[in-house]
Amino acid sequence: MSRDAGRAPVNRRALLWLLVIAILAVVVAAQTVGDSRDRAAMFAARADAPTMPTVAPGTDVLDGIAVLPQRVYVSDYRRAAFGESWTDDNDAPGGHNGCDTRNDILDRDLVDKTYTHIRSCPTAVATGVLHDPYTNSVIDFTRGAKVGQSVQIDHLVPLAYAWGIGARDWTDAQRVRFANDPANLLAVQGKANQDKGASPPADWMPPNHAFWCQYSMQFIAVLRGYGLPVDERSAQVLRDAAATCPAG
């Protein structure tokens, strides 16, 4: 069944996704948002987005963000510290809406979708198309046992990286929110996500250079929204990537 009948395509109705979810990243209190159909229009994260962030000449995009001499590596990182993977029981935008976070992001980022009912989401995406921002490839999505191999959900600021630079000192609720915040999540090609792993910008950037502006600005927005610092090598990469944004 299609939930998009009668609606204009997402890429024609979506607001500039970076600006919208950057605002959400800053607001860390619990919020009430609309259903997943509304979020699909609000948060479309597309490699072929018609507009992108602008940066005024002379602006330090990392203003107010602490820069560490080097990346902090810790041995006690645990994925479980960020809660059950993709739990709907979280205070991020879209939490407690009846669908797990993975299915919320698939619904937001894919186009040409059909839906099916599963235990964790009554309106889970059954089929769709991903315009992958990391590789600029087009991926046909079909739900199934091996679906995670082709389309995965990436944390822009990786959980393990966040753990070492401050998240280990947060409350459990803050970590669960961070792990499920749409501002920090993108549906992407599975291989690209695996290649990235827990790497910060100093060690990995999207193969699609045309997406570097959006990637860097959203990475910075998440850092700023959650009061996280960044390592010096990654800071330089983010500044260089942001320099590819149009002047505004």
Molecular structure report:
Helices cover about 30% and strands about 15% of the residues. The protein has about 250 residues and is of the alpha+beta class. The protein has one domain (about 10-240). The strands form three sheets. A three-stranded antiparallel β-sheet has the order 2-3-4, covered by helices on one side. It has a two-stranded parallel sheet with strand order 1-7. The chain starts with 9 loop residues before the first helix and ends in a 6-residue tail after the last helix.
Q: Write down the Rg.
A: 17 Å
Quote the average pLDDT.
84
Total number of helices: 9
pLDDT < 50 runs, ≥5 residues: 1-50
What is the number of independent domains?
1
Largest sheet: 3 strands, antiparallel
Q: Mind sketching the topology for me?
A:
Blueprint (H helix, E strand, L loop, with lengths): L9 H4 L3 H10 L9 H7 L24 E2 L32 H9 L1 E8 L2 E11 L6 E5 L8 E5 L3 H6 L7 H9 L4 E5 H7 L15 H14 L4 E2 H11 L6
Helix pairs in contact: 2-8, 3-4, 8-9
